């Protein structure tokens, strides 16, 4: 009988394999083809939120869904509370994190994948495209110019990650995989959210599929939550790091890049307060909607 720890590790591996399987389905015609001149077997893996772009990609997606009338007050409340739970848990309980993500994405249940992808493309063009960190994009471009594949790795749904990768000219994306049946979402995840150890498993699984040499690969992130991924490769890099990651980077002599200005850092603090307000407002809207019913 497998122990609880063995079951958790098995689910991490399943999550990573599912992410790698989905990642390899990127349309080759949308990938950037460059003659390799870099290190053989090398690839670069970039976290998305606060590494490649300002803020949360899922938050912007939810705003877009609301503007298109796909979610109501109750959905907004559930999404906001789920995002807050996800942030506070910080990887301590992956089962609870999975529940939080499923609750936040409950509005896609029963909807077609093509509908959600179409929405994601509109949201990118309308809202997300101008939120990229140009410094991070330049780092990624150096790998692309050398013919080294560049992958996004994020807890955001893989469909959103793929859109970002395609728009930025990257190789592909590893992301949280939502279960589908006959092209429609069931409302459940395949394994865990792609967070913490799951990211490391996904990178390893993709490396096996693509014959990457992990000791020659690079990984970029802003968060200590991504230490499992960063320590899986030979070249970890801290981008806009939180205090814990900055300390780890300094202790291990990893490169550190900070593309945030003082004004940006101040806005980040304001955004946290605004997010808390959205939680309260969304909850109130959900209650009001329930009363009207």
Account of the 3D structure:
The structure is a single chain. The protein is an alpha/beta fold and 293 residues long. The chain has a single domain, classed as HAD superfamily/HAD-like (Rossmann fold), CATH 3.40.50.1000. Helices cover 54% and strands 13% of the residues. It has 11 helices and 8 strands. Strands 3-2-1-6-7-8 form a 6-stranded parallel sheet, sandwiched between helices. The protein has a two-stranded antiparallel ribbon with strand order 4-5. Strand 2, helix 7 and strand 3 form a beta-alpha-beta unit. The longest helix is centred in the last third of the chain and has 31 residues. The chain is globular.
SS element count, helices: 11
The class by helix and strand makeup works out as alpha/beta
- The fraction of residues in strands falls at 5-15%
Rg, please? 19 Å
Known CATH architecture: 3-Layer(aba) Sandwich
Fill in the CATH topology: Rossmann fold
CATH superfamily: HAD superfamily/HAD-like
Q: Which stretches are low in confidence, meaning pLDDT under 50 for 5 or more residues running?
A: 262-293
Span between N and C termini?
48 Å
Record keyword descriptors for this entry.
alpha/beta, globular, 8 strands, single chain, 293 residues, 13% strand, Rossmann fold, 6-stranded parallel β-sheet, 11 helices
Give a short summary of the structure:
The chain is of the alpha/beta class and 293 residues long. It is built from 11 helices and 8 strands.
């Amino acid at each position: 009988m497998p122990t609880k720890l063995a079951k958790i590790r098995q689910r991490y591996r399943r999550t990573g394999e599912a992410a790698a399987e989905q990642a390899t389905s990127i349309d080759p015609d949308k990938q950037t083809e460059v003659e390799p001149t870099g290190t053989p077997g090398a690839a670069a893996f970039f976290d998305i939120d606060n590494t490649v772009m300002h803020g949360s990609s899922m938050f912007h997606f939810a705003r877009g869904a609301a503007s298109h009338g796909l979610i109501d007050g109750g959905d907004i409340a559930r999404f906001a509370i789920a995002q807050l739970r996800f942030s506070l848990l910080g990887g301590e309980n992956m089962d609870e994190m999975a529940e939080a993500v499923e609750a936040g994405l409950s509005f896609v249940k029963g909807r077609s994948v093509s509908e959600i992808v179409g929405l994601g493309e509109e949201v990118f063009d309308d809202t997300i495209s101008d939120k990229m960190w140009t410094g991070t994009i330049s780092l990624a471009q150096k790998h692309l110019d050398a013919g080294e594949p560049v992958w996004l790795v994020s807890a955001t749904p893989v469909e959103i990650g793929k859109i970002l990768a395609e728009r930025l000219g990257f190789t592909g994306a590893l992301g949280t995989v939502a279960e589908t049946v006959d092209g429609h979402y069931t409302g459940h995840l395949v394994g865990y959210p792609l967070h913490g150890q799951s990211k490391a498993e996904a990178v390893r699984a993709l490396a096996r599929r693509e014959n990457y040499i992990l000791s020659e690969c690079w990984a970029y992130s802003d968060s200590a939550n991504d230490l499992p991924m960063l320590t899986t490769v030979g070249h970890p890099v801290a981008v806009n790091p939180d205090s814990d990651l900055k300390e780890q980077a300094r202790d291990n002599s990893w490169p550190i890049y900070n593309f945030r200005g003082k004004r940006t850092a101040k806005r980040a603090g304001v955004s946290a307060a605004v997010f808390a307000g959205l939680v309260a407002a969304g909850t109130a809207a959900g209650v009001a909607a329930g009363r009207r019913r």
